[in-house]
Design a protein that fits this description.
It is a single chain. By secondary structure, this protein is mainly alpha-helical. α1 packs across α3, α2 packs across α3 and α2 crosses α4. The longest helix is centred in the middle third of the chain and has 20 residues. The relative contact order is 0.19.
């Protein structure tokens, strides 16, 4: 795997912006062409896992619809992102949503 996409660990307490940061990171990877099944997030609860997945989808749609959201994402991920990138990713992600891995630490 490209060193640019190596494993990363995000650790933070409740209320510190983990979900925001994770969703930006995930959307950034998706628009760069990383397949959904190559991305994994683990968290402690099913509720948190659902929230992460929901935020990723919401953010991807926002970026697809709004150039300002794309510019904001670009600042967060450190490379250019355009709305067209997100629009290109959405259909494939919808078809492969079952391959997107947001899990609890105890899931198999």
């Amino acid at each position: 795997m490209n060193a640019e996409f190596r494993n990363q660990l995000f650790r933070a307490s409740a209320g510190t912006g983990k979900t925001y940061r994770l969703s930006a990171h995930f959307v950034g990877l998706l628009v760069r062409g990383v397949a959904p099944d190559r991305i994994l997030a683990t968290t402690f609860t099913r509720k948190a896992a659902g929230e992460i997945l929901s935020r990723v989808l919401q953010r991807l749609v926002q970026v697809a619809e709004d150039d300002r959201a794309a510019a904001e994402l670009a600042k967060n991920v450190g490379f250019p992102v355009r709305s067209e990138h997100a629009r290109a990713v959405l259909p494939g992600l919808a078809r492969q949503i079952h391959r997107f891995q947001v899990r609890t630490l105890d899931s198999h």
